[in-house]
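Need Holliday junction branch migration complex subunit RuvA's 3D structure for a figure. Predict it.
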Amino acid sequence: MYEYFKGIITKITAKYIVIEVGGIGYLLNVANPYAYSDKLQESLKVYVHQVVREDAETLYGFSSEEEKELFLSLISVSGIGPTSALAIIAADDNEGLVRAIDEKNITYLTKFPKIGKKTAQQMVLDLEGKVSSVAGKSEKQAAPQLDENQALEEAMEAMLALGYKAAELKKIKKFFEGTTDTAENYIKSALKMLMK
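Structure prediction for Holliday junction branch migration complex subunit RuvA:
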């Protein structure tokens, strides 16, 4: 089992990043790939978790040990798979998540993609009092801005990859038209809007 990779980020897509370690490129599924935009071609430590199934071996990447621990807690809940766990982490509202679990706020929890009432109740049952807020996340520098339409398109593509519906994203996209930001910030803002 892998704990982390230390290497160079060589590729960023809407669904994953590629980190090159010792001449081998590892594909890592991450919550918000564009959070790594300012680290492209730089050496970086990324924490990883490997999921082995009959038909696939998949690696998931995290910016911190705390984020990895939250992911592991989430996938321990019956009904939450790795993709749903990444979508929850991508919302970047870990304090809100912990509060919702501790306060049994099922309405908040069902706003995440593929999380229904039963799964939300299971989250509360399994994780109440056991998950702590992910603290000490490193402050990232502002990523270089892309053409506004390209950044917004990339953000929407990443949101689709996390399991959000195209109809939801169409409404969100209209809100951002005429604005200029990075894909990472568009994703964070869109997730905050969807969680209201």
